[in-house]
Structure formats: structure tokens, C-alpha cells
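Quick one: structure for this chain?
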Amino acid sequence: MRHHDRNKKLGRVKRQRTALLRSLARSLILHEGITTTEGKAKALRPFVERLVTMSKNGSLSHTRTVAKRLDSAQASKKLSELAKRYEKRAGGYTRIVRLGRVGKRVGEMSRIEFVK
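Got it. Here's what it folds into:
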């Protein structure tokens, strides 16, 4: 039985997976939308949604946690600006749009972006 299989492994060990999610989250926050594989987009969504929710709170503890998870001052600053945009919204800050197969790729591509 596969207990504790809620998160996708993405073919990587934990440290590589964490680094990948951080990198994707930074790109998503700075550019407000990125194109990636469907699996990575689905794994990225809850990671970013939690960061936006913490940033909305604005406490010192949450600000430090967001800065640590993103590991980028520029992305942290941009996320605090995005959090102001979603002040009245209770979750659902991102959307995933499926693009289908692009070129000769076997896997499906998706675009993950912030809701306006």
C-alpha cells in the first residue's frame, strides 16, 4: 500500500523537488504566469496558494516564512504586492490552463497564472 502519497514525486528526490518548486514559484510570482508541464503545475499550485495566503496575513512570522521559502527578496516584495490584490479573495489565486501537446512532446503542457 502507498500511504502518504499525496504529493507528486516528479521523478526527483526531496531536495531536488523542493528546489524545483521554489524556482517555479519564483518565476510564477515575478512573471505572473509560466508555461510548464501539467504535473509540475498541479504540484506548484498548493505551494504558491499557501505563500499568497501567508503573505496576506502580513505578520512578521509569515513574512519571514515566505522569504525563506522563496529565497528571493525581489519575489517576496512582488508577492506582498500580489497579496494586496487578493485581500478580499478567500483562496483560488491561480488557474491552470491546459495547452495540450506542444510540438513533439509526449506530455501535456499547461499554463499556470494568477487570476486577475
